[in-house]
Amino acid sequence: MKQHQTNRNRAYYRHHRKRVIRRKVRIAEQYGWNISFEGRFAKGKIHCSCPLCGIKTKKDGFPHSQKKKLQCLDYQWADYVKGELL
Ligand SMILES: [Zn+2]
Asked: 44-57: per-residue pLDDT in tens?
């Protein structure tokens, strides 16, 4: 018997362990990693969260190509609004 009572049963933990492993195995296969055993993906993260690897949009804003597209949309919107007023 357990020392303390838990609100969640073993089926709950099994489900989430499997779910997490499935996700990480999918990512590992995409990158062509050699998976010795799948259980190692039960814990820990498999991505790198350092500033060099992360998505830069949050830190540096949109890339130039996206800024140009957004500007184009702004002009289109302005033209549309002007057209409605006239
Ligand atoms: Zn990194």
From this structure: 888 787 878 877 88
Q: Does the predicted TM-score (pTM) go above 0.70?
A: no
Q: Residue ranges of the domains in the chain?
A: 1-47, 56-86
- Closest by CA position to 24, among listed 46, 39, 49: 46
Backbone angles phi, psi at 43, to 5 degrees: -130, 160
How many A from CA of 21 to the centre of ligand 1?
22
The 3-state DSSP class for residue 31 equals coil
Centroid of ligand 1 to alpha carbon of 49 (angstroms): 6
Distance 51 CA to ligand 1 centre (A): 7
pLDDT given for residue 3 in this prediction? 80
Q: For the chain, which ranges sit under pLDDT 50?
A: none
Cα of 55 from ligand 1 centre, angstroms: 11
